[in-house]
Amino acid sequence: MSEIRNYTLNFGPQHPAAHGVLRLVLEMDGEIIERADPHIGLLHRATEKLAESKHYIQSLPYMDRLDYVSMMCNEHAYVMTIEKMLGLQVPVRAQYIRVMFDEITRVLNHLMWLGAHALDVGAMTVFLYAFREREDLMDCYEAVSGARLHAAYYRPGGVYRDLPAQMPKFKGASKWHDESEIAALNENRQGSLLDFIEDFTNRFPGYIDEYETLLTDNRIWKQRLVNIGIMSPERALQMGLTGPMLRGSGIAWDLRKKQPYAVYDQLDFDIPIGTNGDSYDRYLVRIEELRQSNRLIRQCVDWLRQNPGPVIAADHKVTPPPRTEMKEGMESLIHHFKLASEGFSLPAGEAYAAVEHPKGEFGIYMVSDGANKPYRMKIRAPGFAHLASLNEMVRGHMLADVVAVIGTQDIVFGEIDR
Amino acid sequence: MFEIVENFLLGLGLWPWLATLVVTLLQIMLVMVPLLLSVAYLTYAERKVIGFMQIRIGPNRVGFFGKPLWGLGQPIADAVKLMFKEIIIPGGADKFLFLIAPVLSMAPALAAWAVVPFGSEMVLADIDASLLYVLAITSIGVYGVIIAGWASNSKYAFLGAMRSAAQIVSYEIAMGFALVGVLMAAGSINIGDIVRGQGGAYGLLNWYFIPLFPLFIIYFISGVAETNRAPFDVAEGESEIVAGFHVEYSGMTFAVFFLAEYANMILISMLAALMFLGGWLSPLPASWIPELALFDLALGDGIHWLLAKTALFLFFFLWFRATFPRYRYDQIMRLGWKVFIPITIVWLLVVGLFIMGGLAPWFDAA
Predict the structure, then answer these.
(1) How confident is the model at residue A365 (pLDDT cuts 50, 70, 90)?
(2) B54/A129 Cβ within 8 A
(3) Which runs of consecutive H residues, i.e. helices, occur in A179-278?
(4) What are phi and psi of A29, to 5 degrees?
(5) Distances (CA, A) of A66 to A61, A150, A248, A261, A418
(6) What is the DSSP string of B190-237?
(7) Residue of B nearest to A218 (CA)
(8) Cα separation, B279 vs A49, whole angstroms
(9) Containing H/E element for A72?
(10) How far is Cα B182 from Cα B178, in angstroms, rounded to an integer?
(11) What is the spatial distance between Cα B234 and Cα B237, in angstroms, rounded to a whole number?
(12) What is the ipTM of this complex?
């Protein structure tokens, strides 16, 4: 009789559930996974190295391209590090705008995760429902920055510009949509961006209920997630898991509460945690985070309505002066020229700032030698640590569970490979 | 009608065997052409129905005569595209088995239709043991899947084939037991007799789905599992093993698997309608139907009822696909062996008691 060997299966990078370019080498005993070996680097773009040869402001758009489903949160960590090194005060209104868009980004990310996770487990309808809501939020991104995905909206010292007073509308009838359909689409776009977001926050809890109707108590969904990929709290801490991956294991660790940044300490929200540390708990945690984010967005909208003010610091060594001033004042013109040509410099030293990114702790560690470029920039991406725990989470499970665990880890290769 | 054709051919001086052959071929065409057309338009219906469930439109561009016509031309365009695509045979594949597999999967899916009655006299081959024939023929379909997975020389296809084999074999048993209940109730294994056994004074209350309700549900769920449809589509499990057993197939070879799957869906739906929902019988009691020619035609027994019932089941197939996540392979096996088979066995005893007690209105005649 011949020797029994394990079956090695190459999973990805061209695989529908690979979430981009994940390549797993699976060692299997029948359908049971003995070992899962993630191979990374297929999306490596050398962001950290590129940053060393660019002005601080020029690296900002690269941040959007790290975790490309939670763009503004990446930007937030980056600008926070710079502000920390400069000791720059950010206007309160800008901080509220940032928190509002951080939470919009969290909703965007969690919707993407929910859709992809459900699709991995075989429920494809949730994916399209989630994308319906993402479309509205993308429109908010576009209204404020001009881009749907890679916004580049935050700036050291604030945000690029104030919220638009007019929400852009759909234009003109086409072969596929007549005037009445366009009018229906524009119905909640009559007012400002804030009106549109407020309308969204009113609708969104109902949408979450829709997703939950399809999934939460669905027997098949529970059979596929309960007790799959269990992470004990101790092990989760050892592996460096953060965000919903850690909270799903029952540890109430959230940077928004534990080391509040921006204006999170003035807002009212709760941190959901799980009990078993399995995929189902992480699912419930993220669903609750959607509801909490909705609450936060709503609070920011209310505050922003009542408190107009500057949205970017007036320190023109770092932020560009208003264009009208540039036309009249020599000083402003020089500031603009210096910023546009050599950028600004950070004092020599190092700093680390982290935000509670939708996936976990996203931090930027910056070392400056006093020049107008970083000496070294290190990105702490949450997904990297999560992917490292994949082997432990799937061992002993079946092939179908690997897909469920990849889904529950909310992996995005932009940040893992950087 | 066919006697007229046959007599006409005989009158032309054809040999009797040739005349019979021509008439039989005509009959086969009469079943196959609408069947293949409905397969094509079932894919269209699937895309439209699931599209509307998922707040999108589905195909709406390809029409006829330069008009979109809600995308009605899409199945034709797809068929033409698939016919002209290259059939790629992987380097390590066994060429003969690789090409025979789609045929093995398609042939039984079509052959089973030989004994399916569309009306009390509308049946291609009215054989006594037609139910047995259907069960036997549909079981062969799994060979196509296994051979496809094996011959592809791909690990994904192999896993898909293994899953499919285990799944179809287990659900065949649950399905068989569910049908045993039907033939106990009808006292016959001829599908036509089974339908006729469901006739009676009370319309749809006479149908077998009421006394055999658990078997009805199990038969249909097993049918979904047999055809490898969501939520039991582990054999092709898109997100797990990419496309499972047909991962290496392209062009027309792939299309044939696809056709077989949809032809099987229609077959399972029609059998469910015949066994449990009274086939071509009208749901209204005969006494309710006014004796006007038009009413009689629309509301009385007829093939349109059978088609409507089949369409209902097909809609369920699509609805399931839009709603449910996919089972894991071992969970499917557990459901089949530990839930369905025990329930069917218990219910067979219950049906036996019904029959002995002569429960009206289903079992009092016998």
Answers:
(1) very high
(2) yes
(3) 179-185, 193-215, 219-225, 233-238, 244-247, 255-258
(4) -110, 95
(5) 9, 10, 24, 21, 6
(6) -HHHHHHTT-STTGGGGSTTTTTHHHHHHHHHHHHHHTT-TTSGGGT-
(7) B324
(8) 71
(9) helix A71-86
(10) 7
(11) 4
(12) 0.83
DSSP labels, A373-408 = S-SEEEEE-HHHHHHHTHHHHHTTSBHHHHHHHHHH
The CA distance from A362 to A337, in Å, is: 33
- B123's CB contacts (< 8 A; 6+ apart) are B115, B116, B117, B192
Strand A32-39 to strand A23-29: parallel, antiparallel, or no bridges (unpaired)? antiparallel
Rg from Cα positions in chain B? 22
Neighboring chain A residues of B238 at a CB cutoff of 8 Å: 16, 122
The answer to whether the beta carbons of residues A67 and A410 sit under 8 Å apart is no
User: Residue A308: how many CA atoms within 13 Å on its side-chain side?
Assistant: 2
Q: What Å distances lie between residue B328 and A184, B230, B233, B238, B297, CA to CA?
A: 42, 11, 9, 13, 47
Q: Determine the distance in angstroms separating the CA of B325 from the nearest CA of chain A, rounded to an integer.
A: 4
Q: Spell out which residues of chain A touch residue B165, defining contact as CB-CB under 8 Å.
A: none
Give the pLDDT confidence of B34-57 residue by residue, as tens digits: 888 899 899 999 999 999 998 888
Q: Is residue A1 over pLDDT 70?
A: no
Neighbours of B93 (CB within 10 A): 19
3 state DSSP class of A273 = coil
Q: Which residues of A touch B329 (CB under 8 A)?
A: 31, 398, 400
At A182, the amino acid letter reads I
**pLDDT tens track for A339-353:** 889 888 889 999 999
Q: A192, A167, A191, A159: which is closest to A93 by C-alpha?
A: A159
Q: How far is CA A355 from the centre of its chain?
A: 10
Q: Which of B325, B328, B330 sits opposite A123 (nearest CB)?
A: B325
pLDDT at B366 over 60: no
Which residue, A225, A271, A248, is CA-closest to A397? A225
Contacting B with CB below 8 Å, chain A residues are 7, 9-10, 15-17, 31, 118-125, 128-129, 132, 214-215, 218, 220-221, 223-224, 398-403
Tokens representing A290 are 């959607």
% chain A with pLDDT above 70: 99
Residue A27 is inside which H or E element, if any? strand A23-29
- A400·B329 Cβ contact <8 A: yes
Token representation of residue A142: 């576009």
Rounded Cα distance, B235 and B253, in Å: 17
Instruction: Return d(Cα A127, Cα A117) in angstroms, integer.
Output: 8
Q: Whole-angstrom Cα distance, residue B24 to residue B229? A: 33
Inter-helix orientation angle B251-276/B155-186, to 10°: 20
For B295-353, what is each residue's pLDDT tens digit? 777 777 778 888 999 999 999 989 998 888 888 888 888 888 898 889 999 998 988 88
Spatial distance between the Cα atoms of A95 and A80, rounded to a whole number of angstroms: 11
Question: pTM of this prediction?
Answer: 0.88
How far is the C-alpha of A74 from the C-alpha of A61, rounded, in Å? Answer: 10
